[in-house]
């Protein structure tokens, strides 16, 4: 399916006191775009997201009620092909490389937002993607809200890339939506561009 890129969302920061809540109207917009109502959804970084029969949450915090309490960097205690949608809104932790003027003197720094905000361990980008694809049903969606544009994970294709604006002086975030492939579709790989024409990220989109 061709990538859907014809809209941007203007969503205010959540007014709730909990820092990690989804932006205002975020779930409503995702429901309109790919459909959440009546589907089985895993909120991988659940926070204060409401749990019910179809909405399962995972949060490492002992203070917050959740369906699961597992480390997203390890194998999920969930069977393959369980959820229609996996929602990921991780702490924006990342490895940052400072490039110096002299070769070989680059400094690698871990930017660890999760420690101060949620008292959590470092969660590298992509560390939860393989498992998110595994527990998603074929044809289902993996949604990653981040300031990074994520590469296409193995076993899925990019369905949409939606910029989300929250207000002045706030960074634009990217909603990366991937659709899990069926086994027959996985066998058809995307060949690299032999002439090197186009953007360097074409093979990852």
Keywords summarizing the entry:
205 residues, alpha/beta, seven-stranded mixed sheet, 9 strands
Strand order in the largest sheet: 1-8-9-7-4-2-3
SSE pattern, N- to C-terminal: EHEEEEEHHEEEH
Q: How can the largest sheet be summarized?
A: 7 strands, mixed
Q: State the helical fraction.
A: 10-25%
| C-alpha end-to-end distance | 12 Å
- Helix tally equals 4
Secondary structure: number of strands: 9
State the secondary-structure class: alpha/beta
Report the radius of gyration as a whole number of Å: 18 Å
Low-confidence stretches: 187-202
What percent strand? 25-35%
Q: Looking at the structure, what is the overall shape?
A: globular
Average pLDDT works out at 80
Walkthrough of the structure:
- The protein is an alpha/beta fold and 205 residues long.
- The chain has four helices and nine strands, in the order E-H-E-E-E-E-E-H-H-E-E-E-H.
- It has helices at residues 26-34, 113-118, 129-135, 183-186, and strands spanning 9-10, 41-43, 55-57, 83-88, 94-98, 107-111, 136-146, 156-165, 173-180.
- It has a seven-stranded mixed sheet. It has a two-stranded antiparallel ribbon with strand order 5-6.
- The two termini are 12 Å apart.
- Residues 187-202 have low confidence and may be disordered.
